[in-house]
Write a structure and sequence with these properties.
The protein has about 400 residues and is of the alpha+beta class. The protein has three domains: about 1-185 and about 280-320, no CATH class; about 215-260; about 345-405, no CATH class. Helices cover about 40% and strands about 20% of the residues. It has twelve helices and 13 strands. The protein has helices at about 40-50, 75-80, 85-100, 190-210, 225-240, 270-280, 285-290, 295-320, 325-330, 345-355, 365-370, 395-400, and strands at about 15, 25-30, 55-65, 65-70, 105-115, 120-130, 135-140, 145-150, 155-160, 165-170, 215-220, 255-260, 330-335. Helix 1 (about 40-50) packs across helix 3 and helix 4 (about 190-210) packs antiparallel against helix 6 (about 270-280). The longest helix is centred in the C-terminal third of the chain and has 27 residues, at about 295-320. It is extended, with a radius of gyration of 32 Å.
Length: about 400
């Protein structure tokens, strides 16, 4: 398996399939792809993936409502997930798997050692999106849940489920997987619309082909047998092919009547209705697909379609990469928008003014917000307005004395 050799484990002993309340055996095959032959579907999914891959994953710790970025081995692998992927490659990969399969699995790799106190320490070394052909959920006699991945080439591996990043899309009737009760995308309703769209496009194609199949009628003013008719047609076609001026000269025995074309195609409203009906299934408006959107339209797209996915991804990473104890200290993974995606120039000015006055922005961050390159002489420089003061020192600042003075 090359790059993924170190990911494989043995199935735990004395194991059985995990208990499922519905009574179904939790074995799921990956996954149907019938709808993805449609260019409209691929374009809609590409819109979502393209926006999500702009996000910046960050290990943070929340202390008394103060969000602190953390430099850690986890942050390192978020920036360099593995040997062959950048962060944007990594996000794009697991997002396509999520939208295609409604389930996306990422395997974190790590190594452990014991410190001087004898406590086991863990350090993460990589994150690997995987594409299994079959997924089995099993549990051992202690009721620990495992997930077994079987790949298309026959290899299989088993992990504790708690160590696997599992992102689910449209998580509803199945207990373990996103999608329908079988853990697969339910595209039955969408396929009907796609079939209608396919038939319309086929009809347009045939209409155009039929409309241009006959260019004119050549009437020969004599009785000819079949061989002579075919020879006459061939000679006429050769004259068409040789003509560069647009004029064709024939003898008096032939009349040529051009065919007037009046091709009837599907009207724009019908095609737009079909496209929007397909796009609604993925929460992608037509204006987003064409790139001709306003700020409110993009905000609505972000809140309706992107934000729920971002929340699900952030929580799935947090759940797998941190223990309960680490989470209790405020550790989590957040995927932040990398750019000021909602703001026009006036709003950017206001944001920089508010955050800049409070000392929340570095000077180079202010420049980058307006598309200016950072300057080396401003590295690490933060400026703060003296119009603000810590609330603990407000009285002292105003009166010139301490809070204890009466």
């Amino acid at each position: 398996m090359g790059l993924f050799d170190g990911l494989f484990h043995r199935k735990p002993k004395n194991s059985k399939y995990a208990d499922v309340l519905s009574g179904m055996t939790p074995v799921y095959s990956q996954f149907g792809t019938d709808i993805y032959a449609s260019d409209v579907v691929q374009q809609a999914l590409s819109c979502i993936v393209t926006e999500i891959k702009k996000l910046n994953p960050q290990h943070i710790r929340t202390v008394d409502s103060d969000i602190i970025p953390v430099k850690s081995d986890i942050q390192t692998v978020l920036k360099r997930p593995n040997q062959i992927m950048t962060t944007s490659d990594f996000i794009e990969k697991f997002m396509w798997l999520l939208l295609l399969n409604y389930n996306s699995f990422i395997v974190p790799t790590y190594y452990t050692w014991k410190d001087e106190t004898g406590k086991t320490q863990k350090r993460y070394s990589g994150l690997y999106p995987i594409q299994p052909a079959q997924v089995d959920f099993i549990q051992d006699i202690s009721d620990t849940l495992y997930v077994k991945f079987t790949f298309a080439n026959g290899y299989d591996t088993t992990f504790p489920y708690s160590e696997v990043i599992h992102i689910r899309h449209r998580y509803s009737v199945n207990e373990f997987m996103g999608g329908n009760e079988c853990g697969q995308p339910d595209n039955s309703a969408l396929l009907k619309t796609l079939d209608l769209n396919h038939k319309l496009l086929q009809g347009v194609s045939k209409s155009i082909g039929a409309g241009y199949a006959v260019n004119g009628i050549a009437k020969v003013k004599s009785l000819l047998d079949r061989d002579k008719i075919e020879k006459s047609i061939q000679e006429f076609n050769e004259m068409l092919a040789r003509s560069e001026s647009g004029f064709i000269v024939t003898d008096m025995a032939t009349d040529v009547t051009p065919v007037q074309r009046d091709i009837k195609l599907v009207d724009n409203d019908t095609l737009k209705f079909i496209d929007e009906k397909i796009l609604r299934n993925f929460g992608v408006p037509l204006c987003i697909l064409t790139g001709d959107y306003t700020k409110p339209q993009y905000e609505a797209f972000y809140q309706k379609t992107l934000e729920p996915i971002i929340i699900a991804v952030s929580q799935a990473f947090t759940k797998a990469l941190f223990t309960d104890r680490e989470c209790s200290f405020g550790n989590e993974i957040k995927f932040y928008p990398k750019d000021l995606i909602f703001m026009d120039i006036n709003q950017t000015l206001e944001m920089v003014r508010l955050l800049g006055d409070s000392g929340s922005l570095y000077e180079n961050e202010k420049r980058v917000a307006f598309g200016l390159k950072p300057l080396p002489e401003l590295e690490g420089v933060r400026m703060q307005s003296l119009n603000y003061v810590n609330i603990e020192y407000a009285k002292q600042y105003q009166t010139g004395g301490s809070d204890s003075e009466k």
